[in-house]
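Late entry, evening session. Most of the bench is empty. Finally got around to the prediction I had been postponing all week. Sequence below, unchanged from the version circulated by S.P.
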Amino acid sequence: MGILRLGVMCVVILTGYTDRVLGNMTVIPGLLLNERYNSNIYNSVDNEEADIITTCTPGIKLLEKTERLDVDLSTHALCYFYKTNDQENTIDQNYSGQVSYNLHQRLRVSSLVMHQIDSRIDREIDETGLIFDTSKRRLTKYSGGFKYIATEKATAQMIGSYADYKFDSDKYVDSWNAGLDASMIIDISELLESTTDRTRFGYHRYDYGQSIIDNYYLMVGFGHNISEVVTFSLDFGGRYTHYTDTSELDTGETVESKTGNQGWVGDMSVSYRQQFWTGQLNLSRNIENASGRTNATERSSINGSLNYRFSENISCGLSTSYYLNQTNNPLENVTDTEKTWQAAGSLIYTYSKDVNLKIGYAYSRTKNEADQTSTRNVIDFQIYCQIPLMES
C-alpha cells in the first residue's frame, strides 16, 4: 500500500503543479443500484443455491481535460447484500487514477495506478473466464508508457506494466507479474488502400513463488478498412516461454528445474458500425496471467457482441464469449484446463447522459480442472445516475 499511496500522491501533485494549464475540474458523484437473481451463487457443480443480491455502488469521479492534459481519478465501493446468504454480505473497493500528457506535438505519455479489493466469485469471468470462491483479493496495478508519432505514416507505442495479487485464503497463490509491450504501426495505403502494417512484440514475467514463467512473443499483421462501416485486423506470430520451478529437498537444499517451449499467438478483430447497428468479434491467443493459480495459462478466447439502437433513448445488445484456459507447465507434467462459455442480452433505456436503466440476462457454463460442469442463470435490473457538480 505504501507504493500505491506514493503513486496517488504523484498524481495529485502533478495535478496541482500543472494548475496553470488546467481548465475546470469536473466532479461527478454517481450511484448504481442493481438487483440480481443468481441461480447458482457459488457456481457449484452439484449443489446449486439461488439467491437475490442487492448491490449498492456509490462512487465519485474527478475529470480534467485540456488541450495537453487528461486526468481521470475515480473511486467506488460495491456493497453486496444477500437476501438469504447474508454471511456473504461484503464491501468491495476500487481506486484508480489515470494521467496522460502531450509532452510534444508528436509525443504523448500516460500512466495508471489502480488498487481494488474484491471478493465476487465471478470477479474475472468477463475478462478471463476464471472462477473463484468468495476469498478476498487485493489487486494493485501500475502501468506507464508513451505514444510517438514518428512521421505522418508511422506511429510507435510502448507500455510497461506491473500487477500484484494477494489473497486472504491459502487456497489461492499470491503472485505478481511485470511486462513490456511495444508496437509499430505504418500506414501503407499507397500500396494497399486503407491499410496499416503492424508489428507487436513483448516480454512478461509471471512469478507464482515456486514457479516463474518468462514469455516472449512477436506478432506481425495488418489492419484494413473493408468499407466505411467494416474494419478488420489480424496479428499472428510466435512465442517462446521459459519455465523455472523451485523445490526444496528433505535436506533443506533448494533445487531449480528449467525448461522452455514454443507456440503460436494471435489476435483477430472484425468490427461493424453504422447508424443503428454495431458489432464486434475478437479472437486471441497468448500466455496470460492466471490470478490465484500456480502457473500462467495459455488463454484462447472468442468474444462477440451485437447492438441495435431503436431510438436516441432505447437500445439492446447481445453478447457471447468463450475462454479456454490451459495451464501446461512442462516441468510438472500436469495439464489443467478450465473452460467458460457465456451468453447475455440486455435492454437499455437512456433517460439522459446522467441517468440510465438496464435489464439483462446472462447464462454461463463452466468446466473446471476436474472436468466438472457448472451452470448459472443471472437476471439483472440496474439503475445508474450521476450528478456533475462542476463542469467547464
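Two things to note before I forget:
The first strand starts at residue 26 and ends at 38.
The chain has one domain: 2-386.
Will write this up properly tomorrow.
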